[in-house]
Amino acid sequence: MSEAQPAPSEGQPAPSEGKKVTSLGVLKALVFILGIQAAAVLLTYLNAPVFSLSGYSYAPLGTSPAGSAGNTLLLVLVVFATTLALVWILRQKRVLSFKIIVFGATVLSAFSLTLITVDSVTLYFFNFSSPLFDLLLSFVPVALLGYTTFVKASSRISSGVLALLSAEVGSYFASTLPLITALLFPIAFSLYDVYAVFRGPLRELVSAAPASALGVISVKAGEFTIGLGDTVFYSMLPSLAIYQLNILGAAVSVSAAVVTIAAVDAGMVFTLYLLTKKKLLPGLPIPMVLGVASLLLFLR
After folding, report:
1. What pLDDT shows up at residue 86?
2. What is the residue range of 181's domain?
């Protein structure tokens, strides 16, 4: 899901029109996103040797410009098909099935990526590596998301876990997508985002799904609810700067990451202020255009 909207009061539906956006609310959202981006950049730096040695790269259609465009289209089509399937499940009033499927996909990503994260962090900072310790700690986000999804909803717990997952997925995309695909993907997904929010299945998904079911695909950032897809892409672009430009030295890669973060976050803040007019807006187009443009300045 990729959307941004003012968060409704606890247990109450969001109003049909936009609401007043406060500077404090925007600042809280900005600090939250900055934390995710900083974590993603750090994880990219720590995990770079792992992904480089693995040699894994998502390129089923090759790495040429045409192949990269095809790879991007495949990724967007997968998201579109998944959203359609989830909408169909909700139309059948199978809310529990919806929650189980979304929960399963989310925790699978959280578990596998946290496994890599824990090993990299403990090895780098503590010179310690234990497969059993990595395995046990990787179950923590799974348990927390299970608790907030099926036992007692807690936006603080779910948002904290999903913030970590956003950083991990953003870093993973930046490290495993070929450069051209990694640049095309945010732009293509931004175009899909506009369609999905205003005319496509995402609008119906957000309207039909109960708040408890959406807890694992959106985060609470201040007074805003931001889609998990948005936070992933917000963290992916600065991570891409670190991964692709690290060969030129830390000064260049960090500078590129900082500039990219500034561009992405400026676009995000502008989008949040636009929510005074609409309660539901695509959160990607403006930040992604600014972020990719900033990144291209360093990749020339």
Report:
1. 87
2. 4-8+16-93+155-299
pLDDT of residue 2: 40
Q: How far is CA 102 from CA 208, 238, 260, in A?
A: 15, 27, 31
pLDDT, position 257: 97
Q: Does some domain include residue 86?
A: yes
* Domain presence at residue 139: no
Q: How many domains does the chain divide into?
A: 1
Distance between CA atoms of residues 221 and 241, nearest Å: 25
Counting as low any pLDDT under 50, the low residues of the chain are 1-17
Give the E-state strand segments of the chain in sequence order. Answer: 4-6, 218-221, 224-227
163-197 pLDDT, tens per residue?
999 999 999 999 999 999 999 999 999 999 998 88
Q: Pick from 241, 243, 220, 222: which is nearest to 230 by CA?
A: 220
d(CA 186, CA 57): 17
The residue behind tokens 């730096």 is: 45
pLDDT of 44: 95
Q: Is residue 188 part of a domain?
A: yes
What do you get for the CA distance between the two ends of the chain, in Å? 32
